[in-house]
Amino acid sequence: MRNPYIVGGWVSGAAHYGRRGLISHLLDGPNNALWVVGTRRTGKTSLLRQIEALTLAHPQYVPLFVDMQGISTRAELNQELYYALEEVADRFESHGLDVAALKAEDEIGLLRAVRRQLLAANHVLLLLIDEAEALVSIGQADPLLLQRLRKIFLAGAGLRVIMVSTKILLQLNDPGATWDTSPFLNGFAPRNLTGLDPVASEMLIRQLQSP
């Protein structure tokens, strides 16, 4: 029998098995700021890519996937946010957003502009952040930026944030120990990414979603 497991790359669509309950909660639950915690190779990127695929035709959400792997500075964060938006420009321009006009904006201005435009069109920016551990080094160098990012991530109306990472992200609360406001992760609902349940595991082994 061919090995049904795909290692080293993300999967979505018919190749993605399980996680239906978790995805339903992430999209329909009461929290607009969520942190999915998982160890290496548990499918964190695939989870976000599957959510992106499922919401491409969603009546409310407009997804934006941002891969923060390798980012360590504010300038790189700003650049990656714009590149992520530029790659799917058609997705946002169909809602009246001029993506090219945002190139000169910093990361805060860009996120605010996208959220504001989508909110005016009765849509919600679904911000899918992969490899969120990068925020640790960025926050250590610029704690004020970390506070400003937390403020916009927890903005509520018009924005839902789903971050995935390992437990390393808990280090984000260290700079926040000296803040007058709450630590960064306060306000994010944590969810664990565990192994597939028995039903999903059997479906994967049998490849029941394949043609």
Radius of gyration computed on alpha carbons: 17 Å
Percent helix:
25-40%
Spatial order of the strands in the main sheet?
A: 2-3-4-1-5
Number of strands: 5
Describe the sheet with the most strands: 5 strands, parallel
- Classify the secondary structure makeup into a structural class: alpha/beta
Q: Runs with pLDDT <50, length 5+?
A: none
Cα-to-Cα separation, first versus last residue: 16 Å
The number of distinct helices, counting runs of at least 4 residues, comes to 8
Globular, elongated, flat, extended or rod-shaped: what is the shape? globular
Quaternary organisation of the protein chains = single chain
Average pLDDT, rounded to a whole number, is: 89
Order of helices and strands: HEHEHHHEHHEEH
Portion of residues in beta strands equals 5-15%
Could you characterize the architecture of this molecule?
The chain has 211 residues and is of the alpha/beta class. Helices cover 38% and strands 14% of the residues. It has eight helices and five strands, in the order H-E-H-E-H-H-H-E-H-H-E-E-H. It has a five-stranded parallel β-sheet, with helices on both faces. Helix 6 packs across helix 7. The radius of gyration is 17 Å and the shape is globular.
Describe the secondary-structure layout:
Layout: H1 20-28, E1 33-37, H2 44-54, E2 61-67, H3 74-87, H4 89-93, H5 107-120, E3 124-130, H6 134-141, H7 143-153, E4 159-165, E5 189-192, H8 198-206
Parallel strand pairs: 1-4, 1-5, 2-3, 3-4
